[in-house]
């Protein structure tokens, strides 16, 4: 096995996963479990049925290992799909090349409370408008200059993620909170994984709601 195809996340049979697939005119989201692993691929049996000929080999898919909190959501590709009530996906082992650029794959609209901390200045409340493993769009009444660096603390449920952030763009508003695009500078890998998992879980919940709504409409015809 080469370094490029190394199973760097130690995918193993029995792991529970969330699987997301974007296809034109179709969005698939399902929970599932890994049934077997080979040198270059692994099999996932999913709970959500999928119509025949919906997914094609080579299409991208995103997956989170539910039981591994320190593992980042993974970008992979479909090798083949066996449709049915419990469809079986054969997926590629994610490559080391994707691991290097993993932050670019996960961004979602996600409002989380945060605070802006600067030396010799009061702590100012903020909130994220969208979030990824590499940065966020931030709304706050604090005045921040382009390229200014500050400490950002984001609250995820009962936990906090803190790091140094840098302002990349700004949209100033008088009498209203301003908008900033910030890049994370020293976010730990563990906290980056937590943010990206939260982003994908949010997307998974939204897709399942969409699927439930569409199923209800079809059932009502």
Please render the helix and strand layout as text.
Blueprint: E1 16-23, E2 26-37, E3 41-46, E4 60-65, E5 74-82, E6 88-92, H1 96-100, E7 107-109, E8 113-117, E9 124-132, E10 135-140, E11 149-156, E12 159-171, E13 178-184, H2 189-219
Antiparallel strand pairs: 1-2, 1-4, 2-3, 3-6, 4-5, 5-6, 7-9, 8-9, 8-11, 9-10, 10-13, 11-12, 12-13
Could you explain the architecture of this structure?
This protein has 221 residues and is α+β, with helices and mostly antiparallel strands. The protein has 2 helices and 13 strands, in the order E-E-E-E-E-E-H-E-E-E-E-E-E-E-H. It folds into 2 domains: 3-100, Thrombin, subunit H, CATH 2.40.10; 107-194, predicted glycosyltransferase like domains (Thrombin, subunit H). The strands form 2 sheets. Strands 1-2-3-6-5-4 form a 6-stranded antiparallel beta barrel. It has a 6-stranded antiparallel beta barrel with strand order 8-9-10-13-12-11. The longest helix is centred in the last third of the chain and has 31 residues, at 189-219. The protein is elongated and about 60 Å long. The termini are far apart.
